[in-house]
Amino acid sequence: MGTIHIQRRKEGIMMKIGVIGGGSIGLLFSHYLSAKHSLTLLARRKDQAFQINEKGITLIHDGTSTTICNISATVMSDALSSQDIIIIAVKQYNLSTLLPILNSIPPEIPLIFLQNGLAHIEQIDRLNQKTIIVGTVEHGCQKITDATVKHNGFGKTLLAPYRGDIEHIRWLISDFKDTFPFLIHGDWKEVLFRKLIINAVINPLTSILKVENGGLIENPYYLHLMMSILEELLPLVPMLNEEKMKADILKICENTKENRSSMLKDIDAGRKTEIDAILGYAIELGKKRQHSMPICNVMYAMVKGKEADQGES
Amino acid sequence: MGTIHIQRRKEGIMMKIGVIGGGSIGLLFSHYLSAKHSLTLLARRKDQAFQINEKGITLIHDGTSTTICNISATVMSDALSSQDIIIIAVKQYNLSTLLPILNSIPPEIPLIFLQNGLAHIEQIDRLNQKTIIVGTVEHGCQKITDATVKHNGFGKTLLAPYRGDIEHIRWLISDFKDTFPFLIHGDWKEVLFRKLIINAVINPLTSILKVENGGLIENPYYLHLMMSILEELLPLVPMLNEEKMKADILKICENTKENRSSMLKDIDAGRKTEIDAILGYAIELGKKRQHSMPICNVMYAMVKGKEADQGES
Q: Are B257 and B200 in contact (CB under 8 A)?
């Protein structure tokens, strides 16, 4: 594995980007974005911040590891108020503790939320910030150590304005169009719901059946189950085209056939999953609309049961 | 582990009992019944017959192993026509190849069928035998080698006349009342449906979730799933008391909490399961009665999918 050390490029206007969250997504974004701007990673644990300050963030991609050293890492602090933009890359279930802190920073600083599901929308709606962007990440990545992230699948990040004007963060999109692409979409609901449905169909099934994403299309029984779940979910999202969603999901399983879904990885590692933000949210929505979802209820109970079993051991 | 060798007791009238099938149930019945009668075990494989003729059948129970040597074992042969009674202990999915052979033996020989589910009823209905008994086995047992069976849970065998008179096999019941109890029930449908429901609720769930029977009552999500499956199945069996079935299933899970269900063992060993005879049969019944069973359909697809995956590896 070759190792390349590069310094942040000193061209154009340096913006200050804050990234909250030292998980795989936080590390991935910090690594790429720090190539052109001044980056501060805000971690929950002091020892992770220490590791990153000492070593930088190493990215492993296609067998090559690249380390960027000029990343400042810290735990939650005043550093937040001096950023030009803040990207929030914590899991949905860790967001609630963060909201009071976000609300205390100047309302002019745009925030970008990258959580799965839509359960966080109600929470971020109460924030004071003038510009709030929501996004979905299509990169495949895995945290290896506190300061190393593996970039398994190169994708894009879809951003949509939830409130305010996306023009405030246009510099972010143009600066990385060749190296770490962002795409803008006008309708945040469509962006988040599309990802919700994809996650709701693939993640619980793979984690219950313990198969890689490709297993869902290679096994006719599993394929049938996946399509049955999708059929149950589609009435919740009339804005999405049914045939396109089916084709997209089959293609995603094909393109990521050797990948293990994040939920399968969480279950196998004994971690909490995002089941409540994903399938839990969809089921609640179904209840409100009196739409019966028996298969989704089974999937939900199985994943919650697996989580509960892990808590015991 | 202590070892006791005992010879068949030479008292009373010796009857000739044929047991077809060298799986765990076949070995268990052969071992116990050979203590008082002349037993012939009919195996599919010559080498298993050879092993049993050489070594007898060893039973392991409560840490003690007991070997009975006077058991004659053979592959399918004329031996069938000279039995006083024949017990058929093969899996349901292996029964069809056996039926022409059974039909060729004298119609006076009573047959006892011990298969799970009810899928075999249609098949045995076409036989010529005057007396046909069906039964369910509540013993827990596990085949260790071709000539050794472990008796994990001591239970009883429930027998009910499907055709003819149970009086023809009364000697079997009275001879073993203290050592290997048989109980007679008047209604074969009730006997088989009760076992079908118990198996349909416990077996697929434990094999999908990879938990022991106790796991289904210790985990609140799994308990809820189990009760939801039972709710779907109960309309198919109006002859069974709903509250009693619920209580029975909870008690069975409690009493066998450290046991792994036969279906879980089959899945883990890469063997074919009895899913079609159990849940497959119930689902077909539901279709005929236009009773919707979405959760059972999910369980069925998951077990069939696991079977299909194993075929590949």
A: no
Sheet holding B140-145, edge to edge: B3-6, B64-68, B57-61, B148-153, B140-145
pLDDT of amino acid B8? 40
Give me the residues of B, 30-59, that contact A with CB < 8 A. Answer: none
Annotated catalytic residue within A55, A143, A156, A195? A195
B-chain residues within 8 Å CB-CB of A297?
A: 228
CB contact A228 to B (< 8 Å): yes
Per-position DSSP letters for B169-202, written without gaps between them: GHHHHHHTTTTS-EEE-S-HHHHHHHHHHHHHHH
In chain A the domains, ranked by start, together with CATH numbers, are 3-186 (3.40.50.720), 191-312 (1.10.1040.10)
Nearest chain A alpha carbon to B227: A298
Closest C-alpha among B210, B230, B236 to residue A309: B210
Rounded to a whole number, what is the distance in Å from the CA of B58 to chain A's nearest CA? 37
**The pLDDT of residue B163 is above 90:** yes
B294 min Cα distance to partner chain A (Å): 7
Tokens 């399961």 locate to B273
Please list every residue in chain A whose beta carbon sits closer than 8 Å to the beta carbon of residue B309: 211, 215, 219
Q: Of all helices (H) and strands (E), which one includes residue B159?
A: strand B157-163
Q: How far is CA B274 from the centre of its chain?
A: 11
3-state secondary structure of B262: helix
Q: Does A14 touch chain B (CB under 8 A)?
A: no
Are B41 and B83 in contact by the 8 Å Cβ rule? The answer is no
Indicate if the pLDDT at residue B81 is higher than 70.
yes
Q: Residue A64 in 3-state DSSP?
A: strand
Q: Nearest-CA neighbor of A263 among A190, A212, A309?
A: A212
Task: Specify the DSSP class assigned to residue B93.
Answer: G
Low-confidence residues in chain A, pLDDT < 50:
1-2, 5-11, 313
CA A236 to chain B, closest CA, distance in angstroms equals 19
Q: Which helix (H) or strand (E) holds A66?
A: strand A64-68
Mutate to test the interface with A, among B208, B219, B291 (most CBs of A within 10 A): B219
A147: contact with B, CB 8 A cutoff: no
Residue range B150-163: mean pLDDT, rounded = 93
Q: What confidence category does residue B77 fall into, taking pLDDT thresholds of 50, 70 and 90?
A: confident
